[in-house]
Design a protein that fits this description.
Elements (H helix, E strand, L loop, with lengths): L10 H17 L21 H11 L6 H20 L39 H4 L14 H8 L33 H11 L2 E2 L4 H11 L4 H5 L17 H4 L1 H15 L3 E3 L7 H4 L8 H22 L6 E6 L22 H17 L4 E7 L2 H18 L5 E5 L14 H8 L6 E9 H12 L5 E7 L13 H13 L5 E4 L5 H11 L16 E3 L3 E3 L12 E4 L8 H9 L2 H13 L4 E4 L8 H12 L3 H4 L3 E4 L3 H8 L7 E5 L5 H14 L2 E5 L1 E2 L2 E2 L3 H19 L6 E4 L15 H15 L4 E2 L14 H19 L3 E4 L12 H11 L6 H24 L13 H11 L5 H11 L3 H21 L5 H32 L17 E7 L7 H12 L2 E5 L6 H10 L4 E5 L4 H16 L5 E4 L5 H8 L10 E3 L3 H12 L3 H13 L17 H6 L19 E5 L4 H4 L6 H6 L21 H21 L3 E13 L5 E4 L3 H6 L4 E4 L27 E11 L1 H10 L3 H30 L10 H5 L20 H9 L1 H5 L2 E2 ...
Parallel strand pairs: 1-8, 2-3, 3-4, 4-5, 5-6, 6-7, 7-8, 11-12, 11-20, 12-13, 13-14, 14-15, 15-18, 18-19, 21-22, 21-23, 23-24, 24-25
Antiparallel strand pairs: 9-10, 16-17, 26-27, 27-28, 27-30, 28-29, 30-33, 31-32
Helix pairs in contact: 1-2, 2-3, 10-12, 10-18, 12-13, 13-14, 16-17, 17-18, 20-21, 21-23, 24-25, 25-26, 26-27, 27-28, 28-29, 30-31, 30-32, 30-33, 31-33, 32-33, 32-34, 34-38, 35-36, 45-46
Length: 1460
């Protein structure tokens, strides 16, 4: 039972694993003994093939996914159990390992990648043709540019905005550069291809260093210009470009002179109206950018003049602002934002104008922690470049905030790049937040996918305890070396903590290495993103098809449930639908809130804003779907990823079509283009092709829309309507798809699949079968890529029943004019079957219980886990009313919910936005309870005779103890810690909470300063564990003797025992894991009372024993009542599947004409080797592979050769022979369906004269599926049908005499060999005789043509179970068989008192011929069935209940000796 402990609770799974394990361990390795629950054991042959494969993968560790596969199967089996208990249909069985089907290839798929010498360029003429920037900004007179300048606060009338130089200033060849003469883009291309270029370092660090040497206070920041400003401005570094320009220019010059920077970032990180609002300086945004760039321009020009072969460039820095477009600032409202996309665009546009007017050569959007902000900046830059007609290179730098490798808004580095690559940045990379060491894996991943140049400007390590940075120039160069060695970069610089010497060190080291080579350019691919990226061309769905599943259920038009929720404004439940779509296999979420009764713009904005805060939803890209273009644009402005917009088309006319496409291109969205034009919808193949080709030409040639981002929807229209003109819609779509893909390179083809089968709505099986057929051919033969589907309902082609598949193909391909009628007939039949199933015991559909129907405790847990704050106060109050103390509400349901949140977050299954939502709910709940707890505390003080208002808050003498609480370094999560503090405080402990991100030194110093009794360390993220180890080590080094408590979601008792405790644990100062806040009081109390020694010793002993595993016993098996089992019998429709024909030779036939030679081909040799306990190891288990087995192969071959010799002797000398008897009688199941009556003749059947009755047993154990509970009687038709039952008994005679001969010769080997051969021969005879019955005597399979091997694999119709074996485990039924076939009289086969057959080498069986008959094991049976069975048997024998129980002893589920 230890083996499968991880799957406890699901008997079928556990016993399947055991069966596989034991079979191999016993038969191949010789395992002899095991502690088992014998009644539950399965034989390996009992396992379903797919279950066996999963078990073997797990037991033999064949594939890495084995555990995941078994977990999936376990969940399915659990769901089946629940469905059965709830009287529901079972869920769909997991498909197991899916094999991907190759993608349809077109000529353009075969493009050979070519070397790239320049990054992808913007589509403007200036960029495409390397048109130099004239630097004559006075000529930029677009109204929006002029409007920005009109707001300028610059007072100097001579402030120039033209920066062009004399064309003859420097030589015309590279590396020289003259503004207005040379292209910056072209120059940078040469620079980045030839060397690793140098960026600058931190501006803030240099200002801070300057401030240490010189007085740099509020007055210096203000200067003369702002001496009377109405708020404090110290810390506004950007304004120093105005008030202390010599300082800023001096810093620029140091980076140029000492560092050797090729490019300087301007001091404009926060120079936007949004960021400057903190200082009431919004009006100065243009001036700040202008002078920030101008000072850099002057410094660069001065350095270039000194060495014209090393021109220096100004990068206009555009920071992230201090607001985020993707994250809500509100605790209560996930859709709230403190900035809009349009506001961001406006502020960034103004910044771009100021930077360019100030002389910037390049614009760099940097330190991006929210990609939506970056997209707004890039949109603004794109607008400026369009209005100005200039080519200004754009760099983009993202910030991954921690070791998760994600931005603050949750995106991976790859998703970040996929989201902004539409802007064609010349250089992309990472900066800030991390040191070079921490960046390595993320830079490597980016370097594998980025198509342009790459940069890094990391921090000088991670911040130390004082907020500074410790990496020296040498350290920083050393840590960046890995980037240079791997040729990942084209530009390097420094961020926080870096200085000119750091940049110099980087320059000197990087000079020894080659820059990153641009990746080869192959065929373009569609690259989408949500929180994670998705390359559509490489995408396979859950069925193994090269197909993008677009989930349809968040679509007003596709789901009535969704429509009702969105109309009611219930966005929380809408998110649940979206989550389920992703969980069920949707790669992209379709969002459609386009309805005449709804404000579509507002609804789309709200839905998207909430959805992007739900990681389980927003990890997938979105498809923004609306017929109103304003609605999709509204949603687009809240998507930080790269979505699909559905749709645009020529139905609005060419000009508006181009406007729509251009706007989508600017936003970086892919586009669904419908096959509509000014004349309407394309219905025929030719019209679909014509409109798509026309649209493609306009988009690619005129709009310059990326062809790989075009998804054509040639209109999936409804088939099977009964209208002739609709009959070809399916095949027309498939054919058009192929032609469009052939003639419009790189496009995708999509469609709304549910439209196809709309005529058969209401019958899911029919609809999904049609879809499966259509999609398989459209995808694999014509190259369809995308579809709006309900992924959960999708079927594989092989899952469609053959008859239905044929009908689907006739319908889809318009093969047969009767196709619609045939499908309609099948639909009616399926509807009737559904109705019949409903009427067959299910009754009224069971309504699934809502979480709001649960008790308050469960509701609170649900609210916390799912971040639902709507009902929390009501539920907390209800829980408080039933709790003994308010504190118990926190210790119970609130902590339970937060523990689940912590587990999911620690496992990487929740991201920051989800945790924040849960925290908001928790804070709201605790805030509600605080007044009640404070009241309780006051009452306790009054009860002690103390005045609660007179207590000195600094007097800690009245406390039970003092506890210091801290969240360790690198971790900002404090909710759990705060709850512990509340719980301890309510229990009269003084708590010193020193906050989050606490260094080891801070924690230990505070503990000593406050003389605490206990230290509590908290952490939610995995790196916190290492910090806790470090704290324990440092406490030991300091000789401290304070106990330590470990808590937080990522911690565990095992980690504490193994990793932390050994560093510090003693009897005086233990280290103890505290599972949650509810345990904290008990633990602290135990540590501070007189029983501490005993308590700590118990903990020490427990931690010492942590390596031992304790497993629960096997689960009890549940049983149905006999009446329930009968109700769930196998119900064969004997009209649709009639009984086999009447036998050609009814009655009794003696078989004495079969030679041993005729039997030999039917011998199954596998049991022969098992008799001799020879078992091959996988893959050489069976005959004849056993001969190849390393361990037993040689011995097996010798044994087999000996057997062949003896067999030949037996045949030649005639020492053994076979004989048997066959009987076939008319038969019917009894009226109650539990037994089978046989008749001597058809006349007796008609007269009701029963010859004999075979009593049968029925399965009774509860099943983890809705499979029937079988009895052999189920396979025989009831009265009214002419059915039959066969039987035979056969023996191998002569073995006993041969055995005696070898015994006399003391030849035990030959004796056993003779017995083993006799067994094989009689089994072979039984197999040969059964074939003869099927083809001759009964003749129901006259044309059967199976090999002996296939017969041994039971590939024929019918079964031949024997009394005493699993399908009918009652040996007493042999007496009925012997009387019916006269086995003793005609064949000489006798029965002993114990009903063993004599000779020993004998076989008997009942023969069932119906095609639906199957082998099964009755298993254990209950008393109610045994009593009924005994009553039925007593009608034809003298067997009493006591005797029946004795015969059935091995299969009784109860103790027959127990008193009634």
């Amino acid at each position: 039972s230890n083996l499968s402990f991880g799957f406890r609770g699901v008997t079928k799974i556990r016993e399947s694993i055991h069966a596989c394990f034991l079979h191999h361990a016993i038969t191949e390795s010789g395992m002899d003994v095991g502690i088992v629950n014998a009644k539950e054991m399965y034989h390996i042959n009992d396992l379903e093939p797919d279950m066996l494969q999963i078990c073997e993968n797990l037991v033999f560790n064949k594939i890495p996914e084995a555990t995941d596969d078994m977990l999936e199967r376990t969940n399915y089996e659990k769901a089946c159990i629940e469905a059965r208990k709830a009287n529901r249909a079972p869920p769909r069985k997991p498909r197991g390992r899916i094999v991907n089907i190759p993608r349809k290839k077109f000529d353009w798929d075969n493009i050979v990648p070519k070397p790239a010498f320049e990054p992808p360029k913007p589509t403007s003429d200036a960029a495409q043709n390397y048109v130099p920037n004239p630097y004559q900004n006075t000529k930029l007179t677009h109204e929006k540019i002029l409007e920005v300048r009109s707001r300028s606060t610059i007072k100097d009338p001579n402030a120039t905005i033209d920066w062009n130089q004399d064309p003859s200033l420097y030589p015309a060849d590279y590396p020289h550069f003259v503004r207005g003469r040379d292209s910056v883009r072209k120059h940078l291309t040469s620079l980045f291809n030839s060397k690793i270029a140098m960026y600058d370092g931190a501006m803030g660090t240099m200002i801070q260093n300057y401030g240490k040497k010189h007085k740099l206070g509020e007055a210096e920041y203000r200067g003369e210009q702002f001496k009377d400003w109405d708020c404090n401005v110290k810390g506004n570094n950007d304004m120093l470009s105005l008030t202390m320009p010599e300082v800023i220019k001096g810093i620029y010059s140091q980076y140029l002179e000492i560092g050797g920077s090729n490019m300087i970032g301007t001091n404009t990180f926060s120079s936007t109206t949004i960021a400057m609002a903190d200082y009431n300086m919004e009006a100065y945004a243009y001036e700040l950018n202008y002078y920030g760039a101008r000072l850099a321009r002057e410094a660069c020009d001065e350095m270039t003049a000194k060495d014209p072969t090393n021109p220096r460039f100004v990068c206009g820095a555009m920071g992230p602002t201090n607001r985020t477009g993707s994250i809500s600032p509100s605790v209560e409202d996930a859709s709230a934002r403190n900035v809009t996309f349009d506001e961001l665009v406006e502020t960034y546009f103004e910044q771009a104008v100021g930077l360019v007017d100030g002389g910037a050569d390049i614009l760099i959007v940097e330190t991006i922690f929210d990609t939506l902000n970056a997209k707004a900046a890039l949109f603004a830059v794109g607008e400026f470049l369009e209005f100005s007609g200039l080519d200004i290179p754009v760099f983009v730098s993202g910030t991954l905030v921690d070791q998760s490798g994600r931005t603050l808004s949750g995106q991976t580095g790859e998703a970040f790049y996929a989201s902004i690559r539409h802007s064609k940045p010349m250089c992309v990379g990472l900066n800030c937040a991390l040191g070079a060491q921490q960046m390595v894996p993320f830079v490597e991943r980016l370097a594998k996918v980025v198509e342009c140049y790459m940069h890094v400007y990391s921090n000088a390590g991670l911040p130390n305890a004082m907020g500074g940075y410790d990496d020296t120039p040498e350290d920083m160069a050393k840590y960046n070396k890995v980037f240079f060695e791997n040729s990942w970069l084209n530009m390097v610089g420094g961020c926080c903590g870096s200085t000119p010497p750091h940049i110099k060190a980087l320059r000197e080291l990087s000079a020894n290495y080659k820059p990153r080579k641009l990746p080869d350019v192959g065929r373009p691919k569609m690259w989408l993103s949500g929180l994670e990226d998705l390359v559509v061309d490489d995408c396979y769905n859950h069925l193994g098809l090269p197909f993008l599943n677009v989930g349809e259920r968040c679509n007003i038009a596709g789901s009535m449930k969704f429509k009702k929720l969105i109309m009611a404004g219930d966005y929380g439940k809408c998110m649940d639908i979206a989550k389920k779509q992703v969980a069920d296999g949707a790669h992209v979420i379709d969002i459609n809130v386009d309805d005449g009764m709804l404000d579509g713009v507002a609804a789309m904005q709200k839905f998207v804003k909430i959805a992007v805060t739900e990681p389980e939803v927003s990890k997938a890209p979105f498809m923004l779907d609306a017929s109103n273009f304003k609605i999709v644009i509204a949603g687009l402005k809240w998507c930080q990823g790269k979505p699909i917009v559905n749709s645009i088309s020529l139905k609005v006319g060419e000009e508006l079509f181009k406007e729509h496409a251009t706007l989508l291109k600017k936003h970086g969205a892919a586009a669904v283009v419908m096959a509509f034009d000014e004349n309407g919808q394309a219905a025929t193949e030719s019209e679909k092709v014509r409109i798509c080709q026309r649209s493609y030409k306009i988009l690619v040639e005129e709009v310059k829309f990326p062809p790989e981002d075009i998804i054509f929807d040639p209109n999936v229209l409804t088939i099977g309507t009964g209208m002739e003109e609709h009959a070809a819609y399916g095949i027309d779509f498939i054919n058009a798809t192929k032609t469009i893909k052939e003639t419009c390179p790189y496009v995708k083809i999509s469609g709304g699949i549910s439209n196809l089968s709309f005529g058969f709505r209401g019958v899911t099986k029919i609809r999904e079968s049609i879809h499966a057929c259509f999609l398989h051919h459209a995808i694999t033969e014509s190259g369809m890529d995308v579809g709006i589907v309900n992924a959960h309902e999708m079927m594989m082609l092989k899952e469609v029943e053959p008859e239905l598949l044929e009908a689907c193909e006739d319908l889809v391909f318009n093969k047969n004019p009767e196709a619609t009628d045939k499908m309609l007939e099948m639909t009616v039949r399926e509807k009737a079957a559904i109705a019949l199933r409903k009427a067959g015991g299910q009754g009224e559909a069971i309504k699934e219980k809502s979480w709001r129907d649960e008790n308050a405790t469960k509701r609170l847990e649900h609210s916390l886990v799912n971040g639902i704050s709507e009902f929390v106060e009501k539920d907390v109050e209800e829980a408080r009313q039933t709790a003994e103390r308010p504190l118990h509400v926190i210790e119970g349901p609130l902590m339970d919910g937060m523990n689940v949140v912590g587990d999911l977050f620690g496992a990487g299954k929740m991201f920051l936005p989800q945790v924040i939502k849960s925290a908001r709910v928790m804070k709201k709940a605790v805030a509600y309870l605080l007044p009640f707890m404070e009241k309780e505390k006051r009452e306790n003080l009054l009860a002690q005779g103390k005045d609660p208002d007179a207590v000195d808050p600094n007097d800690d003498s009245q406390y039970a103890g003092k506890v210091l609480m801290a969240t360790v370094k690198g971790d900002v999560h404090d909710i759990g810690k705060n709850i512990v503090a509340v719980v301890l405080g309510c229990n009269n402990y003084k708590v010193y909470d020193i906050g989050v991100m606490c260094t080891c030194e801070k924690i230990l110093d505070a503990a000593i300063a406050n003389n605490v009794d206990v230290i509590g360390l908290s952490g939610l993220i995995t790196p916190s564990l290492d910090e806790m180890v470090d704290v324990a080590q440092q406490m030991k080094k300091r000789g401290m003797n304070i106990p330590v408590l470990i808590g937080g979601a990522t911690t565990s008792k095992m980690h504490t025992a193994v990793k932390i405790s050994p560093n510090y644990f003693t009897a005086e100062h233990p280290v103890i894991h505290v599972l949650d806040a509810s345990r904290s009081v008990t633990v602290v109390s135990s540590l501070l009372n007189q029983d501490k020694e005993e308590y700590v010793q118990d903990i020490a002993d427990e931690y010492e024993e942590m390596r031992e595993d304790y497993y629960a016993g096997l689960e009890d098996r549940n049983y149905l009542s006999f009446e329930e089992a009968k109700a769930n019998k196998k119900k064969i429709d004997f009209v649709e599947f009639p009984p086999p024909p009447a036998p050609l030779k009814p009655g009794i036939t003696t078989i004495d004409d079969t030679s041993l030679k005729e039997c030999v081909p039917f011998i199954d040799w596998n049991p022969f080797f098992q008799t001799w306990e020879l078992r091959g190891r996988y893959p050489n288990r069976g005959y004849p592979k056993i001969f190849q087995d390393e361990a037993v192969g040689g011995e097996a071959k010798k044994l087999f050769d000996d057997a062949q010799r003896m067999l030949n002797e037996i045949i030649e000398q005639g020492t053994m022979n076979v004989k048997g008897v066959v009987a076939i009688y008319p038969a019917n199941a009894t009226e109650d369906g539990e037994d089978v009556n046989i008749y001597l003749t058809e006349e007796d059947r008609s007269a009701g004269t029963v010859f004999k009755t075979f009593n049968m047993l029925r399965q009774q154990a509860e099943k983890e599926s809705e499979d029937p509970h079988l009895s052999l009687a189920d396979f025989v038709a009831p009265a009214g049908f002419k059915d039959h039952l066969g039987m035979f008994a056969v023996s191998c005679f002569g073995c006993d005499a041969l055995v005696k001969k070898y015994e006399a010769e003391n030849d035990d080997y030959s004796k056993i060999m003779a017995q083993a051969l006799a067994d094989r021969l009689v089994e072979a005879f039984a197999e040969q005789l059964h074939k003869r019955m099927r083809t001759e005597l009964w003749g129901y399979a006259k044309d059967e043509d199976l090999s002996e091997e296939d017969m041994l694999k039971i590939k024929y119709d019918g079964i031949r179970p024997a009394p005493g074996y699993p399908s009918q485990p009652d040996h007493t039924e042999k007496t009925t068989m012997w009387a019916a076939c006269k086995a003793t009289e005609l064949a000489g086969i006798e029965l002993s008192e114990s009903l063993s057959m004599m000779p020993a080498a004998s076989v008997s069986a009942l023969v069932f011929a119906h095609e639906k008959s199957e082998y099964f094991a009755v298993g254990q049976v209950c008393k109610d069935q045994v009593e009924d069975y005994a009553g039925r048997k007593s009608l034809n024998s003298d067997l009493t209940l006591e005797k029946v129980e004795r015969w059935l002893g091995p299969i009784l589920s109860y103790d027959r000796s127990a008193p009634a």
